[in-house]
Amino acid sequence: ATDRLGLDAAGLKTDHRGRLEVDRKTYQTSVPHIYAAGDVIGHPSLASTAIQQGRVAACHALEVPTLEESPWYPYGIYSVPEISTCGMSEEEMQERGIPYEVGVARFRETSRGHIMGLDHGLLKMLFSLKTRRVLGVQIVGEGATELVHIGQAVMNLKGTVDYFVQNTFNYPTLAEAYKIAGLDAFNRMPIPEEYKVDLKAKPTGKSK
Q1: What is the span of the domain harbouring residue 123?
Q2: Three-state secondary-structure class, residue 123
Q3: Is CB count within 10 Å lower at the N or C end of the chain?
Q4: Domain count, the chain
């Protein structure tokens, strides 16, 4: 992608694959007044991340304050059915030695799935057993590339399995699969002390 750009004339050098090295916080190259974003800097080479990288680069060049980028971003495959993922896979969590629990929901388990006549479709979430945080979301099925953003938001806000258990989702929607998957994992995870009910505790006050 950079072979014909004449980067040498600008004082820039690329690696063996023609990629430019940049400061990943500002997207500034080794030449201070030149910035790079998108495919020319390599992974993840997504249009969505390139747009965000360009915005950060422009803000830095114009000395406009901006927030630090969120660590998790989604991938989308616009096939039939759609496929989308955000965060870590089971293989990555196993390689890193992170104890985890899996929560799964099938679209046919949701009322919206019944209404739409969906026989296929699945949402899977991965939760750390230590912190209870959601660390990965994988979806295959109708609207996967849209649904993934709910999981992405909770991940970037360091949310836990408890978010999906405690919160209400519109009914009927495919997003309800998050609730089902959250409960699926929650029911197999250790119960936090604050959730435990003391059955021996005596009621206080008088009932009316």
Answers
A1: 74-189
A2: strand
A3: C
A4: 2
Q: Work out the percent of the chain whose per-residue pLDDT is above 90.
A: 77
The reported pTM is: 0.83
Domain co-membership, 54 together with 84: no
Q: Are 99 and 130 in contact (CB under 8 A)?
A: yes
148 phi and psi, to 5 degrees? -60, -25
* CB-CB contact of 150 with 174 (8 Å): no
Encoded amino acid at 139, one letter = I
Kindly report the CA angle at 61 between 56 and 63, in degrees rounded to 5? 90
Task: Say if residue 52's pLDDT is above 70.
Answer: yes
At 32, which amino acid appears?
Answer: P
Cβ atoms < 10 Å from Cβ of 9: 7
CA 103/CA 112 separation, integer angstroms: 19
